[in-house]
Fold this protein.
Amino acid sequence: MSGDWIVTLQEFLTNPNVAYIFLLLGLWALAAAWTLPGTGFPEAAAVICLLLAAIGLARLPVNFIGLGLLLVSSALFLVDLKVQSGGLTVAAVIGLIIGSLLLFRPGQGVAVSPWAVIGAAAISAGLFGWAFRAALCAQKTAAKTGVGTVVGAEGVATTPIAPIGTVQVRSELWTAISDDPIPAGTPIRVIAVDGLRVRVAPLHPPSEQQEQAD
């Protein structure tokens, strides 16, 4: 009896629609972790969902062409958040639909429900469309407020930066990048602006930080 729940869980995870949903949830969580680093929650959700998806997919006749298309479409969504062309998001949605339909080898009696594919495509387009518009609005707001004036400003690292994290500058939180690892709580200075991110460096050289610690 103690192993019944394990068998039930395995049967649940080997349902093609369930495995497909967990795969997409994991990819969405990875996208959130890439755009909002430092919180830890998207990363944990991505690991859990992708692990559950892997358990199910390992027992199903996966078509690696379809799986590859899903991964490529996820990458296109993320790239479009950076370049903001709009066309890549359309290509990503098309790739998502085709990859979903080809996720399992034909003739094996296993397939993703068309309703699940339609729902996944609609939700993905909605989520990334919202993120796309949010990024455009953030850029317009930054241009109006003179984001370049933040260069040279001092602040503090609110999360470890290795090489991406979060800093607080002038009572605002920024996604930050650094060439060298910076621990949380370290005073920093903004040295450049890279799109919607700031490039930072420690306010004090490592030698001065060691002297202050001593």
About this structure: The mean pLDDT is 80. DSSP finds seven helices and five strands in the chain.
